[in-house]
User: Fold this.
Amino acid sequence: MTGDTGRVLKQVFGFDSFRPNQEEIVQAILDRRDAFVVMPTGGGKSLCYQLPAHIMSGTCMVISPLISLMKDQVDAATATGLRAAYLNSALSSSDRVAVQRALMQGELDLIYVSPERFAMEEFIDVLAHVDLAFTAIDEAHCISEWGHDFRPDYLNLATLTKRFPDVPVAAFTATATHRVQEDIVTRLGLRSPHVVRASFNRPNLFYKVVPKQKGLKQILRFVKDHAGESGIVYRTTRNSVEETAAMLEQAGVKALPYHAGLDAGTRAANQDAFNRDEVDVIVATIAFGMGIDKSNVRYVLHGDLPKNIESYYQETGRAGRDGEPAQLLLLFGYADIPKIRFFIDQIPDADEQRHALKCLNDMVGLATVHACRRKVLLGYFGESYPEPNCGGCDICAGEVERVDATRDAQMILSAIARTGERFGMMHVVDVVTGADTERMRQLGHDRIKTYGVGKDREKRYWRFLLDNLLAQGVVEQTEGKYPVVQLQPPAREVLFGDRQVHVLRTRKSAPKRKKSAATGVEAYDEALFDELRALRRRLAAARRLPPYVIFSDRTLHEMARRYPVTPAQMLRITGVGDAKLERYGKPFMEAIAEFQKEGAAQA
Ligand code: ADP
Ligand code: MG
Ligand code: ZN
Assistant:
């Protein structure tokens, strides 16, 4: 680590070391080169431009797509001791004038602007009087129509290198595909940029998939297991978002909904409440996510199947930005597949339709393979994960086992064959479990050989097995209002004993999860952490800031482990730099000292 950047990293940001790739990006910017950076969410992109902005003379202009995000980013930068401000339509005209004056007088390290602002001639005139060190484009994928968040306003950024040929440009994105990457570099006209493509691995995230059975109950149980932690629950439809949020609320969990059907005011208020830790859970459609930088999201639960791996990665990526462990849970039910297929069927372009279908199949693959989820996920982005066991997914942690279900499959396939392939799933399950109903007797299905052979197992199990046979192409379900299950060629092989059927299931006594490097938080004093968190929330509320802007969860965990009570001790904590020590150090040191005194009194 070179002296200067290393010193600033510690003194200003309070960090001991750079995260992977940060140092070389900082160096490229200091060398006044264009840069193009793909780094996952939580990888620490902001520091890559904030640190050089602090060191270099002149101002760094940051293009950022969302007004809501801009304020939080400026608050966070200011709390770190950087001289930062933003210009957007939300500012009053007197504030705008003040910011523009500060900008022109060279009093700012960072000026955050929206792409719309950059399109205004009036603002370009202001910029002519500004000493620009470099431009940083955050969420640069918004310029690409191939990306998921295309914003027409971003297209105007193509003029940046023409209007300001002497100002280097650094573009940042978390979008992984190569197609988008090439598109961004071309459109922005970057000049032989220093390109960094970081690993997409998020070592602190734990991936887990369980069969969806009773969706709402499963969601509630998981959320209760993580009481007091911040989490996002994704659902596909507005109705299911409302239903889930209401269910959680009823069960005493502080939760709010978020979807495109709510008016803008409600959406902003709900997002804000989540951002400020006033509610623990936000239940949302995919409309939610881009507008937040909240670093202490401790879990992301998918109540429904995402439509592709790209979305799953983006949405799960919102967990654990602070680097502390976070849990991801996907409830996977085969019944979700036809719902997504329905939408895919509406796509007019045949090529795109095929592509969407392949993406869906890849996602189903990720949810059903008996192989490391992390390996499959990274493999999808063209990255190979070297370790045999990642220690951070349900498969590697041994929570899931692969069992031979050939005999059971034979029973159920035989029931389908003997009833003429003319019945739906539930009826087939009823045959196998020997349902004692009038309908069974009328059809004579109570007299076939497989009637009741599976009554020692729950209906749910047989349904699960049928789902698996569907996914493996052993049976198929017809379209239409009353879908019936039919045998496919592999079914013969199974029936004749030439093919085995395996299913994944959660181990009865799941081994206690080892606290591995990938997933375990080092032990800390939980009672103290709770107090510090409450203190953080109070200070944040008084200053109208999101709590994580004051200190991240990681920083509080470390305080609750090392009990810093002097400024020197405080500065050794990750995330405490000079400015934060001065601004917030005192109340935290006092709270820790007080906590220790009480502990001593009780002992
Ligand atoms: P991104 O924009 O890439 O999603 P952020 O810039 O928001 O990520 O950073 C995510 C989190 O990582 C923030 O809480 C930030 O303070 C923290 N962080 C960044 N760099 C470091 C570092 N070198 N050491 C420790 N924490 C870091
Ligand atoms: Mg960012
Ligand atoms: Zn794994």
In short: Residues 372-374, 390, 392-393, 395-396 surround zinc ion (ligand 3) (CB under 6 Å). The two ends are 45 Å apart (CA to CA).
